[in-house]
Amino acid sequence: MSKRTFSSLATRSVQIGVGRDEKTGGISFPIYPSATYRHPGVGQSTGYDYTRSGNPTRQVLEDALAELEGGVRGLAFSSGMAALTTLFLHFSSGDHLVVSEDLYGGTYRVLDQVFYKFGISVTYVDTANTSAVAAAVNPRTKALLVETPGNPLLGVADIRALAAICQERKLLFIVDNTFLTPILQRPLELGADVIIHSATKYLGGHSDLCAGALVAKDPDFGERLYFLQNSTGAILPPQDCWLLIRSLKTLPLRMARHCESALKVAQWLQKQAQVEKVYYPGLSEHPGYELSKQQALGFGGMLSFRVADPRLAEQVLERLQLISFAESLGGVESLMTLPAVQTHGDIPEAERQRLGICNSLLRLSVGLEDPTDVIADLEQALG
Ligand SMILES: Cc1ncc(COP(=O)(O)O)c(C=O)c1O
Fold this sequence. Notes:
- This protein is α/β, with parallel strands linked by helices.
- The protein has helices at about 10-15, 55-70, 80-90, 105-115, 130-135, 160-170, 180-185, 220-230, 240-250, 250-270, 290-295, 310-320, 350-355, 370-380; strands spanning about 75, 95-100, 120-125, 140-145, 170-175, 195-200, 210-215, 275-280, 300-305, 325, 335, 360-365.
- It has 14 helices and twelve strands.
- The relative contact order is 0.13.
- The protein binds pyridoxal-5'-phosphate.
């Protein structure tokens, strides 16, 4: 059956996999657990030979990831770190990368403690400062990796301006789009070359799945990434591919509600005496507010806030009743973390202090509960 293509992301999301099961017409695309496939004859293939190299359920998911991001090739991995690791394997000893300093601690850890050993060097910069990025590029630089909004301080990088630098200096431009998803931010259309996701977060959306994704804009580079994925093998199993397909169908609805609720919570936090600073790009005081309005379709569901002292931060975490004190983000349930100890614990303390990731900074992933209840929980926890 040939399928019409729709411009609306809401329609595309809901329709993922519909019409792809030609044998039965199943609306929900089936899970193919088979590890291997019978060949019709010597030198012949059904299109599937071995599940690491290709799987029908993963194919539907990977096509959907590419379509939603506006790329040509999507690849699904067993975690966001597996996606990043596979991407970093593209580089060779002697290569240099410029990377956001306000980024997920695990990305810092794999670069600093794993890829460093293989001769890949990194300069961390404030990617919200375009001139700092340009200044960090040297003749050995091969790529720029940007997480925007940043993690956990929510700094906003100018994707178009950074794309211009990458084009001029012939750098691969990688954007970690985990926080906003293609529903709110479309980096490939703004000049990026590759998107990376921790699909464990908003794409999965229900705190019940660990997955990662890469999406390439260029078919040749997509093929290169597929070669690396197939060679090293960190693929997403078919059962999890199916779960992620199901999750993606509600992504636009979820993202709209995350944005609405996070803004309400951020505005409320701003008025609290115990809160020294709120980091949310949807607040007009945020330095990335205007830029976010230009390059994104929403401000997302993530915010951080700093309370007066570390003891109060601990008190908040211990008193939470509705919000869970837990790592991760992007689920339907609200989650709060202490980045200095948890997600960013692998960043050296002096560096964390310089960045402002102190022990009184709390990060909140605003879920899909009634925002009034989230605010009431924060109110009692702040005491
Ligand atoms: C922005 C970002 N990128 C990548 C990762 C790594 O993804 P995963 O935990 O799925 O391996 C995370 C995890 O928290 C993240 O927050």
